[in-house]
Amino acid sequence: MAQAPFTIQQRLTQIALTYRNAALIADRVLPRIPVVSQAFKWSKFTVADGYSIPDTRVGRKSVVNQIDWTATEQNDATLDYGLDDAIPLADILTAQAAMDIQGVMPIDPEARSTELLTSLVALDRENRVANGSNGLFVLGTYPAANRSTLAGTTQWSDFTNSDPVQAILTALDTPLVRPNVAIFGQAVWSKVRTHPKVTAAVYPSGGNATGGGSAVSRQAFADLFELEEVLVGQSWYNTAKPGQTASMARLWGKHAAFIYRSPNPLSTQGDVTFGFTAQWGDKVAGTIADDPKIGLRGGTLVRVGESVKEVVAANDVAYFYQNAVA
């Protein structure tokens, strides 16, 4: 059997699995669920089935009333996402020449490449979760009754006229299932945590344990609104075209979302959840060695990737505020 040109390297795969950018939150917004093949199915039940009140009374000799569950089988499939990086043989030889007496290279070109590629693949996933076709921060992802666009004095950056406390309570009370996770862009969180109405609600006496009283912690905010977690999208991305001067912007924008995230989306009880990420197989990282097309002397191609599909399964157990701050 001919040997495959792409070889998975265990040491590189470990880098791909363990390298994390603390600013990325996609895996906590849409948790990963393993699937057994690239093609997968999931069932979407109707709202009416779970909330219609049936006649449960049974006569002494009558037939017990039966109900019918209405579910639509959804056919889906994971997509492959990955990146390559070409390392000229000259770079590898230079690193090997610098190896110390203990056999350790000060810089491992393949390991460094794997870290960078892993970071970029993860950043692309972060962008899909935030701004993709069914992204968390896309207005059309949500039903009309579960979204609002703020402007002017209603935006939470207006500390005098806006009231984020009441706005957030409305967002939590609107969906049929109360959201348990809040997601903010960093620009929104910086304003919300210092908004006078929020700080007054958390610290009615005008101070906190440290005596500051000017900003609330994520945990204090979660406790105030009875949330399980507060997530803040902090990542940056370059909006400029290749070759142009970098222009940095916040990937998560100036929006806020409140979603219900099931603590156990794999439950056989069929617990509803806003969304999930289907993942086929493990993340991969490896090399294609002796590629003659790289430079004068050839080189090694490093590849990192994964097979995933981000799915919004129940957009009605969430609420979205577009342009939450100016």
Characterise the protein shown here.
Strands 1, 2, 5, 12 and 13 form a five-stranded mixed sheet that branches. A five-stranded mixed sheet has the order 6-14-11-7-8. The model is unreliable at 208-212 (pLDDT under 50). Helix content is 25%, strand content 27%. It starts with 6 loop residues before the first strand and ends with a strand. The protein has 326 residues and is α+β, with helices and mostly antiparallel strands.
Overview in brief:
The protein is about 25% helix and about 25% strand. The chain has about 325 residues and is of the alpha+beta class.
Low-confidence parts, pLDDT < 50 over ≥5 residues? Answer: 208-212
The helical percent reads 25-40%
The residue-averaged pLDDT reads 87
C-alpha end-to-end distance: 61 Å
**Number of separate strands:** 14
Order of helices and strands: EHHEEHEEHHEHEHHHEEEEEEE
Anisotropy-based shape: globular
How much beta, percentage-wise?
25-35%
Largest sheet: 5 strands, mixed
Q: Structural class of the secondary elements? A: alpha+beta
How many H/I helices? 9
Gyration radius, to the nearest Å? 25 Å
